Amino acid sequence: MLTSRKIRATKVNIVYLTTEAVPFAKTGGLADVCGTLPSRVAALGHRAAIIMPAFRSVYQSHAGVEPTDISFAIPMSPRKLVGCRLLRGRLPSAHHVPVWFIDQPQYFDRDSLYGTATGDYPDNAERFAFFCRAAIQAMQRIGWNFDIVHCNDWQTGPIPSLLAADRDLSPALENHATFMTVHNLAYQGNFAKSAFEWLGLDWSHFNQNEFEFYDRVNFLKAGIAAADTITTVSPRYAKEIQTAEHGCGLEAVLENVADRVSGITNGIDQSIWNPETDTKLVANYDVKTWQEGKLANKKALQQQFGLEQSDDVPMIGLVGRLAEQKGWDLILPVLHWHLRENRPTQWIVLGSGDAHYERQLRELNEAHPNRFALHVGFNDMLAHRIEAGSDIFLMPSHYEPCGLNQLYSIRYGTVPIVTPTGGLADTVTDCDEQSLANRTATGFHLHTVTAQGLDDAIGRALYLRYHQPRLWAQIIDTGMCQDWSWKKSAMEYESLYAKTLALKSAAKRTE
What we know:
Layout: H1 4-9, E1 13-17, H2 29-43, E2 47-53, H3 56-60, E3 66-77, E4 80-91, E5 94-103, H4 105-108, E6 115-116, E7 119-120, H5 124-141, E8 148-152, H6 159-165, E9 177-182, E10 190-191, E11 212-213, E12 216-218, H7 219-226, E13 229-232, H8 235-240, H9 251-256, E14 261-263, H10 290-305, E15 315-319, H11 328-340, E16 346-351, H12 355-367, E17 372-376, H13 380-389, E18 392-395, H14 405-411, E19 415-418, H15 422-427, H16 433-437, E20 444-445, H17 451-467, H18 469-480, H19 486-510
Parallel strand pairs: 1-2, 1-8, 2-5, 8-9, 9-13, 13-14, 15-16, 15-18, 16-17, 18-19, 19-20
Antiparallel strand pairs: 3-4, 4-5, 6-7, 10-12, 11-12
């Protein structure tokens, strides 16, 4: 059996295929994962690399990207040969992790990664089919022998099938195993049947066990069906996506490969998200000094936004997309109730998204400027300060594959209120008599996913804060002492890499 200790001793080579990685390209959590996990796995003794498109943002990152002498062409159709070259950089936080970029300006030199405000780019199927095929060529020319090919989200979904169908792979990929990580099942790369031609495969692969999905091409489905191991970004989400409620139409596909599906919770980068050292804060603090530190940060927010200056009034914070998925259909009624009834709370919101949510929030901000602060858009410094200055953080998502803000909140001593779904359920322990008694409570769950259920959860939290301050402090202390670092997650991936390689090796011996 290939144990975790043995896989480390053999120095496994792992390539992460992704369209996002901090600091080169980002639209969401995928970038945080792929910008951090490779370096943490490398720190365990392995050899890691990243391959991603050379988006315009790569050049704008000023991260030292250089050309190489590797170039090649991909036949996208009998009459269309598309050339590209490889660029090379390194993760700024881990110079031993190289990042290889597929440079093809026609496809990737654009204002944004996937589309504009009016919708997705119409040639996304072609763009990312090209990326998948070019990435395979790159893997064979870089000079490494890759043991693990770790794909991420639908943009890399075709790669396990493309590798399995290729009878002319170089020795660099002779003994590889494939991973497919689903960061958000709602995004699948679902295209018209005609898009299949961009993959360069025989039409026999357009079948219900591979790419075909209701007579359309589904990139993510293909990856799930063909990969040796499928992972999601939390254990609860791994189970949820096998149900009709959260399966987004792919629940049957996932049930068929249930023995290959695992969930590993994302970590947070504690070199960035650490209240002891965070340079974006007005005052730093730790688990022993959080009362003074959080109060100083709250006062700074009150002053910055013209809120009522009060040490005792609880501040409720929210940071993220203004979208129904994030529970804004629940939050807005509760916010209305608190402001209209002059309840003893202050609110601060940072985010952008759906126009109708933005409009309603602006109207509330104008009507109640001393009790409700709003910043539409994104501001990294303000995000850190809201986590530090708030007493409570709301995250009542209708579904949440993993979530990071609840982890930031726990780390910063801000008590999260969440819906018990996906990664939120896995990371926030609901406050009740038992969890208080055994000192495991770190936040509050909604008991019903309604506006009233959210208000009830806020009421439970405020009752504890006002009337049982010792237990409130216990919840904060418990959370701040937990380890949600990437090292823990990286070790889980290391173990799963070992298990996958062992199973694949055993299967080959029996062929």
